[in-house]
Amino acid sequence: MSNNPLIQTMDLKKNYITEALETPALRGVSTELHAGEFTAVAGPSGSGKSTLLHLLGGLDRPTGGDILLEGRPMSKLSKDELAKLRLTNLGFVFQAYNLIPVLTVLENTAFVLELQGVVRRERIKRAKKVLAELGIDQYADQYPNRISGGQQQRVAVARAVVAEPSIVLADEPTANLDTAMSLDLIDLMKRLNREKGSTFFFSTHDSRLLDRVNRLITLVDGKVEQDESRDAS
Questions:
Q1: Does pTM surpass 0.85?
Q2: Of 58, 59, 188, 213, whose CB is crowded by the most CB atoms within 10 A?
Q3: Which residues of the chain have pLDDT under 50?
């Protein structure tokens, strides 16, 4: 694991304004994430977990502070530069899967590569390879509505990792899955972390996932209350 942080947050703040009310979601979060980590951020509802993930992913802008991604300050990037950064450096897994219903499993998996301009033969080859590695290549020609929720979330993971991003950000990835599917998905992501060195950062309250992470950051009222390393299987 490199000593240089993959992502660094510096006194990160985020306020949401509704009508005349300004509500702080993050109140100065400073932390570092390193390549190869399998990390979760946890905390009660409203603690700022999802807000932190959205800021790290460039899906929203902070009110104060900054984020360095591989040493690059995200505050200095234009909208187009941020979009390119998300496309090339970040993978996303959402609790609602966010698959494109009119595309097959294979096409969904290859979609990021298509956006990156990878030629068709190469992107299909890479998409088939990752689907086989994740044990869902038999569904390659199916549409999302024809497979189970657990299988859809596996496709979402395949799409997130196929371009080999610097880090995969996952917002409550097991929230809509039953126990068996959740454990299956957690084992899958853990295997990708162990065998390929894929870096994962989750927001979650799922104790089954928290038991498997190597590092746990706990947020309370928009601040880091605890940051601990863990022995996990």
A1: yes
A2: 213
A3: 1
